[in-house]
Amino acid sequence: MPRVLILDGLWNKTLAAVRALGRRGFHVAAGEWTRFATALFSNYCSKRLIYPSPKERPARFLDWLEDELKKNNYDVLMPMEFTTQTLITSQIERLSKYCHIPFANVDLALRLHNKAFLMKYAREKGFDIPKTYIIDDIGQLNALIDELPYPVVIKPRMSSGARGIKYVSRKDNFIKTYKKVHKHYEFPIVQEFIPDGGDAMGVCLLLNNESEVRASFVYKRLREYPVRGGPSTLRASIKRDDVRYIAESLLRYFKWTGVAHIEFKVDPRDGTPKLLEINPRFWGSLQLAIDSGVDFPYLLYKLAMDGDIDPVTEYKTGVMCRWIIPGDMLHFIMNPNRFSMKPGFFNMKIKDDLLSLRDPMPVIGRLSSIITLLYDKEMQDIVLRR
Questions:
Q1: 205 with 347, same domain?
Q2: 278 belongs to a structural domain
Q3: Whole-number pLDDT of residue 375
Q4: Strand partners, 28
Q5: Percent residues over pLDDT 90 in the chain
Q6: Of 56, 181, 292, 384, which alpha carbon lies 20 to 30 A from 212's?
Q7: CA–CA gap between residue 130 and residue 354 (Å, rounded)
Q8: Order of strands across the sheet with 351-352?
Q9: 309 CB contacts (<8 Å, ≥6 apart)?
Q10: Residues 6+ apart with CB under 8 A from 260
Q11: 231 pLDDT tier (thresholds 50, 70, 90)
């Protein structure tokens, strides 16, 4: 029986991977630093593990992980969060002798995750990006304040979702807001705000060790939370060869291997899709790709075990999947046009990341994580820092 260890059980994408592999008959061990973790409640989870926090206690976590890998005959290790992934790949020589760890080099992953590096490279190579200002000295702010095309967006160089992102509509608020973000995320970048009206899209890719594309999937964001921009709460699978080609070109140039997710937004002023960021890890909308026919966790496993796989590029379009608890609920509450949304919030035919009649208990895991929020600083940081 194939044996896989999946880490970061708190997240919907982890649940998606546990279910996908468990349904194929895998022995799936799943772990997290808290027992109140969504994926650990799944029927498809064969073994549940609690470990030291990779973020708060990295040395203890690595010791725990090495011991777990030594004692058990896992085929593949799958960290699902970027912090865990880069910590593990920084110790690849120490850990890879026990099982396959099919993720990219840590230095390359950190470079691509850095929005300042990515925007500089994309601009130099002629890729379409939002107008971007890279700041390396607080003294630059006074000279920049009159140059910016308000409204602008302040984005941390290294973050995910909507964490740390701030919107500034007037120049008299810019320096104060920038310094507020800078306090938590050093030297964030500044970008023009792309107006509403253009599609926001994600391209999901798997590349082999020769940086050849072995799986691709494109989806469109239909709803997000926060409403102005953040993780998607409702998405639909689409075909969009132009953004897929750009994403593939970028990753091939950097000799990427493993999974990655690239975000674009179409500028309604000229119809051009503009590169926003690369997430060199598994992505939050993983369940949609699986439901559409591209089973990235299984394909990554096969790639690790067999060395290569046949390309998977065909999938069902028009499939929708959402993150209802709490993402789409919060979008509904905060959206002033909540009753005119299409599809409507109360459309129960839409697939969901979490809800499943065959595997109902992860809902309890998600709700029980509120308990951790009451006392745990790490959980508070994950949920509350925006």
A1: yes
A2: yes
A3: 57
A4: 4
A5: 81
A6: 292
A7: 34
A8: 272-279, 258-267, 200-207, 213-224, 232-238, 320-322, 351-352
A9: 208, 214, 299, 302, 303
A10: 104, 112, 204, 205, 207, 251, 278, 279, 280, 281
A11: confident
Res 273 pLDDT > 80: yes
Range of the domain at 288: 200-352
126 occurs within a structural domain: no
Dihedral of alpha carbons 43, 44, 47, 50, sign: negative
Q: What is the DSSP letter of 206?
A: E
Q: Does residue 344 share a domain with residue 206? A: yes
pLDDT tens-place string over residues 173-203: 999 999 999 999 999 999 999 998 999 999 9
Same-domain check for residues 81 and 183: no
Q: Are 225 and 334 in contact (CB under 8 A)?
A: yes
Q: Where are the beta strands (DSSP E) in 97-212?
A: 132-133, 152-155, 166-168, 189-192, 200-207
Rounded distance between C-alpha atoms, residue 278 and residue 290, angstroms: 20
Lowest mean pLDDT among 29-38, 152-161, 194-203, 309-318: 152-161
Domain annotation covers residue 282: yes
- 74: tokens are 């896992």
Residue 386 confidence (pLDDT): 45
* 228 and 335 inside one domain: yes
Three-class SS state of 120: helix
Residue 214's domain is classified under what CATH number? Answer: 3.30.470.20
Domain boundary among 173, 192, 211: 192
Interstrand relation of 76-78 and 3-6 (parallel, antiparallel or unpaired):
parallel
The answer to whether 39 touches 30, Cβ cutoff 8 Å, is yes
Q: Are residues 205 and 305 in the same domain?
A: yes
Domain with 74 in it: what CATH number? 3.40.50.720
| pLDDT, position 139 | 87
Contacts with 282 (C-beta within 8 Å, 6 or more apart), sequence order: 13, 17, 78, 80, 259, 261, 296
Is-contact 22 347, C-beta < 8 A? no
With respect to residue 384, please indicate whether it lies within any of the assigned structural domains.
no
Residue the block writes with tokens 């996908």 = 20
Integer angstrom CA distances of residue 254 from 111, 119, 291, 300: 10, 14, 29, 19
Shared domain for 272 and 181, answered yes or no, is no
Per DSSP bridges, beta strands 272-279 and 213-224 are unpaired
Backbone φ, ψ for residue 150 (5° rounding) = -60, 145
